[in-house]
C-alpha cells in the first residue's frame, strides 16, 4: 500500500494552525492568528488578536470608527505580537512566522527585534497603505524574508464529530 498523497505540506499545516488560532479572537470584524515555527518545524508559539490580559473584552470597545479612545485600535494586541509574547522564553532567532494578513509596522518591529527571519502570509490587502509599506521597508533593511503562501488547496476541514475520528 502506498502512503497518502494528499497530506498537508509544512506551510499548509502551520498556516492552518495560525488560522485555527484566529478563531479564538473575539474581534467582531477581523480575526487574525499567528504561528511561530523554528528551523526544525517545531511550533514555538501561537497568538491571535485581542485585548491584553486583564482588559475585559466585555468592557473595552470593539468599534472601528469614532474618537480613537473609544475604538479598539489603541487597545488591541495583534496576533504577531501576542505570539511573540506568548513564547515560553526560548529564542525566536531564525524562526519563521505564519500569519494570514501581512504584518503592520508595529508588528514588523517586534518581529525584527525577536530575531524572526521569515514572514509567510496569505493576504497583503493593505499593501498600498503607509503602514504596510513601512513594514516592508523595515523587513528588507533587516534581511527578513517575505513569502506569500500559495497553498495547494482552498480549505482544510477539521471535523469535531467523534464519529469522524
Order of helices and strands: HEEHEHEHE
Kindly report how far apart the N and C termini lie: 21 Å
| Residue-averaged pLDDT | 95
Q: How big is the Rg?
A: 17 Å
Strand line-up in the sheet with most strands:
2-1-3-4-5
Our count of helices gives 4
What oligomeric state best describes the polypeptide chains here? Answer: single chain
Secondary-structure-derived class:
alpha/beta
Residue share in helix:
25-40%
* Residue fraction in strands: 15-25%
> What is the β-strand count?
5
The main sheet comes to: 5 strands, mixed
Query: Can you tell me the residue ranges where pLDDT is under 50 for at least 5 consecutive residues?
Result: none
Shape: globular
Question: Can you describe what's shown?
Answer:
The protein is an alpha/beta fold and 165 residues long. The chain is 27% helix and 16% strand. It contains 4 helices and 5 strands; from the N terminus they run αββαβαβαβ. It has a 5-stranded mixed beta sheet, with helices on both faces. Helix 3 runs parallel beside helix 4. The longest helix has 13 residues. It is globular. The mean pLDDT is 95.
Annotation keywords:
165 residues, alpha/beta, 5-stranded mixed β-sheet, 5 strands, 27% helix
Amino acid at each position: 500500500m502506498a502512503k497518502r498523497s494528499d497530506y498537508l505540506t509544512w506551510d499548509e499545516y502551520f498556516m492552518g494552525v495560525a488560522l485555527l488560532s484566529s478563531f479564538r479572537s473575539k474581534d467582531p470584524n477581523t480575526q487574525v492568528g499567528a504561528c511561530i515555527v523554528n528551523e526544525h518545524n517545531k511550533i514555538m508559539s501561537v497568538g491571535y488578536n485581542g485585548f491584553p490580559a486583564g482588559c475585559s473584552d466585555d468592557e473595552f470597545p470593539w468599534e472601528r470608527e469614532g474618537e480613537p479612545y473609544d475604538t479598539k485600535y489603541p487597545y488591541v494586541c495583534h496576533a504577531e505580537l501576542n505570539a511573540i509574547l506568548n513564547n515560553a522564553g526560548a529564542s525566536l532567532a531564525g524562526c519563521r512566522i505564519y500569519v494570514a494578513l501581512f504584518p503592520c509596522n508595529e508588528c514588523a518591529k517586534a518581529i525584527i527585534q525577536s530575531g524572526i527571519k521569515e514572514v509567510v502570509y496569505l493576504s497583503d490587502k493593505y499593501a498600498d497603505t503607509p503602514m504596510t509599506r513601512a513594514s516592508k521597508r523595515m523587513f528588507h533593511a533587516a534581511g527578513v524574508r517575505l513569502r506569500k503562501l500559495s497553498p495547494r488547496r482552498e480549505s482544510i476541514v477539521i471535523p469535531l464529530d467523534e464519529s469522524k475520528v
